[in-house]
Amino acid sequence: MMKLILIITFSFVISVIRSETQKETLSPLYMLENDDFSAKVPSSKPQPLMVPLTLIQGADSKGAVCLDGTLPGYHLHPGSGSGVNNWIVNLEGGGWCNNIRTCVFRKTTRRGSSKYMDKQIPFTGILSNKAEENPDFFNWNRVKVRYCDGASFGGDSENKAANLQFRGQKIWLAAMEELMSKGLKNAKQALLSGCSAGGLATILHCDEFGSLFPKSTKVKCFSDAGFFLDATDVSGGRTLRKMFGGVVSLQEVQKNLPESCLNHLDPTSCFFPENLIDHIQTPLFLLNAAYDGWQLYESLAPSTADPHGYWKACKLNQTNCNSTQIEFLQKFRNQMLNDVKGFSATSQSGLFINSCFTHCQSERQDTWFADDSPLLNNTRIAKAVGNWFFDRQVVKEIDCPYPCDKTCHSLFS
Description:
It is built from 13 helices and 14 strands. The chain is of the alpha/beta class. The longest helix has 23 residues, at 2-24. The N and C termini lie close together (11 Å). One of its GO terms (biological process) is cell wall organization. It is an enzyme of class 3 (hydrolase). This is Pectin acetylesterase.
């Protein structure tokens, strides 16, 4: 029943995206993420903890503002007991805007303006305050930093003609300064996390986060569904590279990309995680579906690359994919595994790559930690991340190819 509800709900969200895209003639890569539709799934379970929004007062004086110039914000639930000096800082995801038109539209939503942000949001999955839902981090200080810049907290520029402020890097710095004053500076253990565009932001800011603390603090980073590939789409083009190129150029993200990458690659390439992860010094864990649902839908087989709709049925349900399409998807998986090969060889890295057709698995309760959560090596995602963070065991889990995994929570079947 839950899978059926997820199919219906996901289809509804995709139709909303298409409707908005057509109405505003937006890029097909304008995305709503997991948190947009998971909240719509009915549940008989007790309601999750609701945490209020706090705006960062004075952030505007530092140039740290959302696309429309409003104050950025965050949601904080304080830790208790053994977790009182431990922190999770979670960076919200929500796609990107790559040109003036998409950014102007975005500033009329919660993705570009705090005027439209919910005044309170549910904390589930890795942010849950219940031990039975979040065994290793439930009593930590848990923060979600809201995302309102459209460049994975990475840009620093403006467009006066369109009244757009691209201040993701300044928002990141203002949020960290605010949280340090709230007790983050005293953390004994700290984890930076995020899913999708927030997962990419986690990779981009991982070493910056690590540099905030003394060497005595245990600091790590956890990226969920943030490993976006510079992959060829079904028409032979590079849809995501074109999108990322627009983001980097418009918002001047190159100012905040690592020199170690820019010394030998162009700025757009340095926005792709595959070219960043080998340079990161702070321990990093990658959680990703080998057949990432968002990348399949919007990067590999978007409507622009599939005008006749040959991939439509396959995208909605992988059991409808023909042998040629499955072969294409297996090549995508192989590219992902090849891209993480060097990274996975390091002692401090962590991996959980399951053969699922989904996107974001750490903030949804059903995929993070539940009786029927996805398994690899008989271990649920929450336990795998905890085992890695606390050095209980090495975690380098890579699933066998589709269709071997029967524990997936797919958005498409």
